[in-house]
C-alpha cells in the first residue's frame, strides 16, 4: 500500500540526484569506470518539447575519465506502463543530442508493480529493404529484479530500490528489515540515511501485522552482535516506532 501523499517521481529524482554515482556503479559498472565523478553536473529543468512541454526527469553532464570530452546521462523514471514509451525515449534523446551536441547515454527505470512482462530496450524504424533506425536504451525494470540478489551489495541505492523490486506479499516485512540492515552498514550521515528510510517507507508502508513481523525480523539479526546494535541504533535515530 502506497502513501497517496508522497510524490514518488520527486522521491526517485531525489534518490538518483543524491546517489547518482552509486546508481551508475550498481547497474552500469562499465559506464561507471569511464565516468569522472568529480565532473558531474545536473542540468536543471531540462525541457524536452514533445508537444507536452515536459521536463526530463534527470539529466547529468559528466566528463570521460582521463579525457576532456563530455557526455550526458539521461534517466527517466517510468511509473506506469506505456506502449509508446520507446518512441518518446528516442524523441528525448534526439532533442538532448541536438541541443547540447554531446553523446547521450539513455536510461529508463520502470518502477511500476504491474505488468511484469519484459519491457523493450530499443526503438526501431525499418523497411523491408532498409534499417533506418535502431535506437537502444538501458533498462532497469525493478519488478523483474529479485531483492535477494542485492542483499550483499554495499550500496545505498540497493538499500532503497530493494523496496520496489519483485517481492512476495509475505516477504514485505523481511525486505524492509533487510533494507534497514543494509542501510546500517553504510555509515551515512543522518540526512542521507533519512532519505533512504523515507524511500523504503513509501514503498513498504506496512500494516499493523506486517509491522510486528518487521520487528521480529529485526530481532533475528543476531549473527553479529555489533551489527545488531548498529541496526537498532539506526532505527532509533530515524525515529522508527513499533506499532502494536
Descriptive overview:
By secondary structure, this protein is an alpha/beta fold. It has 2 domains: 1-144; 148-244, no CATH class. The chain has helices spanning 8-18, 20-27, 29-33, 85-100, 156-161, 172-184, 190-203, 208-219, 225-237, and strands spanning 35-42, 47-48, 54-55, 58-64, 70-78, 104-110, 122-127, 130-136, 138-141. The chain has a 5-stranded mixed beta sheet with strand order 1-4-5-6-9, with helices on both faces. Strands 2-3 form a two-stranded antiparallel sheet. Strands 7-8 form a two-stranded antiparallel ribbon. Helix 6 (172-184) runs antiparallel to helix 7 (190-203) and helix 6 (172-184) crosses helix 9 (225-237).
Write the layout of secondary structure elements.
Elements: H1 8-18, H2 20-27, H3 29-33, E1 35-42, E2 47-48, E3 54-55, E4 58-64, E5 70-78, H4 85-100, E6 104-110, E7 122-127, E8 130-136, E9 138-141, H5 156-161, H6 172-184, H7 190-203, H8 208-219, H9 225-237
Parallel strand pairs: 5-6, 6-9
Antiparallel strand pairs: 1-4, 2-3, 4-5, 7-8
Helix pairs in contact: 1-7, 6-7, 6-8, 6-9
Distinctive features:
244 residues; 9 helices; alpha/beta; 5-stranded mixed beta sheet; globular
Order of helices and strands: HHHEEEEEHEEEEHHHHH
Helicity range: 40-55%
Instruction: Give the termini distance in whole angstroms.
Output: 19 Å
Global Rg: 20 Å
| The number of domains | 2
Number of β-strand runs: 9
Q: Mean pLDDT, as a whole number? A: 88
Strand content: 15-25%
Shape field: globular
Across the major sheet, the strand order is 1-4-5-6-9
The structure class reads alpha/beta
Provide a count of the helices. Answer: 9
Amino acid at each position: 500500500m502506497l502513501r497517496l501523499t508522497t510524490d514518488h517521481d520527486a522521491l526517485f529524482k531525489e534518490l538518483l540526484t543524491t546517489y547518482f554515482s552509486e546508481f551508475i556503479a550498481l547497474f552500469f559498472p562499465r559506464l561507471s569506470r569511464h565516468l569522472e565523478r568529480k565532473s558531474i553536473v545536473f542540468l536543471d529543468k531540462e525541457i524536452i518539447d514533445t508537444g507536452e512541454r515536459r521536463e526530463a526527469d534527470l539529466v547529468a553532464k559528466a566528463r570521460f575519465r582521463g579525457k576532456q570530452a563530455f557526455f550526458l546521462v539521461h534517466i527517466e523514471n517510468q511509473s506506469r506502463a506505456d506502449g509508446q514509451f520507446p518512441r518518446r525515449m528516442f524523441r528525448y534523446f534526439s532533442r538532448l543530442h541536438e541541443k547540447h551536441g554531446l553523446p547521450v547515454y539513455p536510461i529508463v527505470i520502470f518502477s511500476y508493480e504491474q505488468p511484469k512482462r519484459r519491457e523493450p530496450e530499443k526503438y526501431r524504424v525499418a523497411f523491408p529493404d532498409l534499417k533506418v533506425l535502431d535506437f537502444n536504451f538501458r533498462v532497469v525494470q525493478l519488478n523483474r529484479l529479485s531483492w535477494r540478489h542485492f542483499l550483499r551489495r554495499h550500496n545505498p541505492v540497493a538499500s532503497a530500490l530493494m523496496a520496489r523490486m519483485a517481492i512476495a506479499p509475505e516477504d514485505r516485512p523481511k525486505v524492509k528489515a533487510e533494507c534497514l540492515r543494509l542501510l546500517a552498514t553504510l555509515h551515512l550521515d543522518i540526512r542521507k540515511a533519512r532519505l533512504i528510510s523515507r524511500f523504503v517507507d513509501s514503498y513498504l508502508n506496512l500494516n499493523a501485522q506486517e509491522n510486528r513481523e518487521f520487528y521480529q525480523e529485526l530481532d533475528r539479526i543476531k549473527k553479529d552482535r555489533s551489527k545488531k546494535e548498529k541496526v537498532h541504533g539506526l532505527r532509533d535515530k530515524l525515529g522508527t516506532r513499533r506499532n502494536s
